[in-house]
Amino acid sequence: MNKLKKKNLYIEINDKSFLIAIGEYDDELNFKIIEHESYSPSGFNNGKVRNLETTVENLKKVVKKIENKSNLLFSEINIIINQTDFDCINISGFKKLNGNQILSDDISYILNDVKSKLLESEKDKTIIHLFNTKYLLDNKQIKNLPIGLYGDFYSHQLTFFLIKNNELKNLKTLFNKCNLGINKIILKNFSDGIKIINNFKNDTFIKIKIGKSESTLSFFFESAFCFFQKFNFGSDIILKDISKVCSLEISTIQKIISETSFEISDKNLYVDKKYFAENSYRKISLNHIMEISSARIEEIINIIFNKNKNLYDLKDKEVDLYFEFEDKNVFNKFHFIFKNNFKKYKFNILKPKEEDPLESIKIFGQLLSKGWAKEAIPFVNKKKSLISRIFSGLFE
Fold first, then answer.
1. 120: part of which helix (H) or strand (E)?
2. Is residue 312 helix, strand or coil?
3. What top-level class would CATH report for the domain 87-163?
């Protein structure tokens, strides 16, 4: 509790920018940011240290700058990593009850047993997050932890998120060289999910991010981050298809897309001559470009969602979809094609420009003081709930 009353240091590591901030709590453990800095990093890629020497030099400068502004010195830091190369593993533990009551000791046994078996099989990885995903009592799903209820058979599903030990070691080395120890790490995908829960008042959803070179899918079920999948393709594959079929440079395709409207029905409209050299003009219909794009977009959606075997259980459920696009040009011109492929679902577009750039750090600050209801390794204050008291000491 005393530690939480102190000012704490936070950093959000992205590929294009780092955000570093100082936050503090009031007497009710409400969090606010009192200083912050941003800078463009080098030596990082996909949330990983690629060049230690360069990154240390840059990080030392910005840490010193924010410490000088606040007249404070820090020995620890809390980190948000924007990494997609992590493992998401769902495991269920079981307990035969034979008509008896479920006790907190039963839950403790299941959680510790599952965790120890996982770490034994994944010795080269470290757990970053652990969520209570699903409770089943006699094959009937229970919304809350069923301590005190009676039954014959209890199943408890857990979702683990792990990163490789050497990547964690690289982060520790980086911050140790800046005289900072790591207090806690969270995944950006987790904080992004909390943004949706907070902003849309929706705790069960799928978020799909279409990047330029990779795409991701995150599934939250009743506030538990329970599934993640990465795909090694993004919107660039659409541009490459058009480039290949039409024999045009990618840069030319980008110009054509940015300056053309494709929400048309006239098949007699063609790409303007200004996009060709004098001796290379060819008649390419805009409809042809849209057909190429539509075919690839449909394939992308099938792989990520429609034909994704990991999502078969969701096909008959009402799950809202939230989309984020890295390439705004592709999104602005072809979003109607994406939307037309999701007529059965509520299709929402996330607009990062409208977001508070420090929102993830503010979420992190609240997580440190109040924990997360479905996370089984919460940071909790002294006024612990029943669930917090059960889980807070299990995984140290």
1. helix 104-121
2. helix
3. alpha beta
Residue 370 parent element (H or E): helix 359-370
The predicted model scores a pTM of 0.88
Give yes or no for residue 144 having a pLDDT over 70.
yes
Q: Of 372, 345, 4, which Cα lies nearest the Cα of 161? A: 372
What value does the mean pLDDT of the chain take? 87
Domain-wise residue ranges, the chain: 2-84+166-196+356-384, 87-163, 202-355
**Which CATH code of 3.90.180.10, 3.30.420.40, 3.40.640.10, 3.40.50.720 fits the domain covering 2-84+166-196+356-384?**
3.30.420.40
CB < 8 Å & 24+ apart, contacts of 233-238: 233/300, 234/210, 234/326, 234/327, 235/210, 235/211, 235/325, 235/326, 235/327, 235/330, 235/331, 236/212, 236/327, 237/296, 237/300, 238/293, 238/296, 238/297, 238/300, 238/330, 238/334
